Amino acid sequence: MATVTKVRVASDRVKLFTLEVPTGGNFKAGQHYDVRLTAPDGYQAQRSYSLASSPGDTNLIEIAIELIDDGEVSSYFHDSVEPGEMIEVRGPIGGHFTWEPSHTKSSIFVAGGSGIAPIISMLRHRFTVKNNAPALLLFSVRTEDDILYREELERMSDNDPSLHVVTTITRGTSKDWIGNTRRIDQGMIDSALVNTGVKPESAYVCGGSGFVESIADILLDTGLDFNQIHIERFGP
Ligand SMILES: Cc1cc2nc3c(=O)[nH]c(=O)nc-3n(C[C@H](O)[C@H](O)[C@H](O)COP(=O)(O)OP(=O)(O)OC[C@H]3O[C@@H](n4cnc5c(N)ncnc54)[C@H](O)[C@@H]3O)c2cc1C
User: Fold this and answer.
1) For 3-24, what is each residue's pLDDT tens digit?
2) Distance, CA 145 to ligand 1 centroid (Å)?
């Protein structure tokens, strides 16, 4: 069981939940937990949530949950879960979509919306252990409000010349926005690679199914091999 210790609003649609788990920090960046809710009548619903926190000594983990319209579990978390609540969890789970400090290959990370969760865990871990293999993050969100971990990403890239972050907004921007304003396409990936000089030998892609499939196709066209591309799908 995990105890919820903190709930924070990260955007209109995403809340961050800090959970205390006895062996919390003992996981690989990219892994997830399964969360199981049980109603008074015995009905159960189980969903997976990536660990957004970095592995470490602490017994606190963070998950980032996007509210899905009519979503059973995400709306329960958004509407009802408060600090002090006990939640049934199982984990850590997952072996393919993981990043470890021994990873010295240059990497491209591509996140769609809440798909940043396991990737911020990898980038946090990478930053903490001072791994400086060249890394490029392409982060696609709907609106500026949806740029999760915005300040932290800026801070990490400002303090680490080997990390490059490119964000793109697909719906509506403010007049102050000077970044990309379209979905990630081949042209955006090609120019980000040229501008940053990153020559990826591995890729980590996370988001909804349509998103990860289109990005994987582009990365294959870019010359990456199928087994160099790690994929995590969040939705249908
Ligand atoms: C390995 C793994 C890790 C995951 N990590 C995270 C995470 O870190 N953060 C996070 O928010 N989610 C994550 N997910 C997705 C999560 O497990 C749930 O699927 C999601 O929260 C929706 O559950 P729900 O009960 O609210 O919706 P449901 O009641 O299952 O679905 C309601 C409706 O929404 C649709 N739907 C379900 N999921 C999505 C989606 N992602 N986008 C759009 N429509 C959807 C369903 O098809 C259905 O029509 C992860 C999934 C996997 C497999």
Assistant:
1) 999 999 999 999 999 999 988 8
2) 20
